[in-house]
């Protein structure tokens, strides 16, 4: 797959706007806001936000990988995900 870091960033920003319900999304917005803060999922796999992210990127995440970027802001998650995708393609 030929995906750029900017592609990853733009997709994360779009998903954050869709799922977070926040008025403003920036690169410092927290990834955890893609999921409900009132009813946290026990696992992130097979949740709507993660499934949509996987579809947009054409890349599947292990639970541990999703948990890692769950605690990041969008900019940190962009670098993490982009590096992860590239490490699998190498």
Question: How would you portray this structure in words?
Answer:
This protein has a single domain, classed as Non-ribosomal Peptide Synthetase Peptidyl Carrier Protein, Chain A (Orthogonal Bundle), CATH 1.10.1200. It is about 55% helix and about 0% strand. The chain is built from 4 helices and no strands. Helix 1 (about 5-20) packs antiparallel against helix 2 (about 50-55).
Short description:
The chain is mostly helical.
SSE class: mainly alpha
Round the mean pLDDT to the nearest integer and report it.
Answer: 93
Rg (C-alpha, Å): 12 Å
Residue stretches low in confidence (pLDDT < 50, at least 5 long) are: none
**Count of distinct structural domains:** 1
Overall shape: globular
Report the portion of residues in β strands: under 5%
Helix content: 55-70%
User: How many β strands by DSSP?
Assistant: 0
H/E order of the elements? HHHH
Count of individual helical segments: 4
- Biggest sheet record: none
User: Cα distance, first to last residue?
Assistant: 11 Å
At the fold tier of CATH, the topology name is Non-ribosomal Peptide Synthetase Peptidyl Carrier Protein, Chain A
């Amino acid at each position: 797959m030929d995906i750029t870091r900017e592609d990853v960033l733009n997709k994360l920003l779009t998903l954050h706007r869709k799922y977070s319900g926040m008025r403003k999304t920036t690169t410092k917005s927290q990834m955890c806001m893609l999921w409900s803060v009132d009813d946290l999922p026990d696992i992130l796999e097979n949740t709507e936000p993660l499934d949509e992210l996987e579809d947009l990127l054409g890349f599947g995440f292990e639970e541990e990988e999703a948990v890692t970027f769950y605690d990041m802001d969008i900019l940190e998650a962009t670098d993490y995900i982009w590096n992860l995708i590239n490490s699998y393609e190498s």
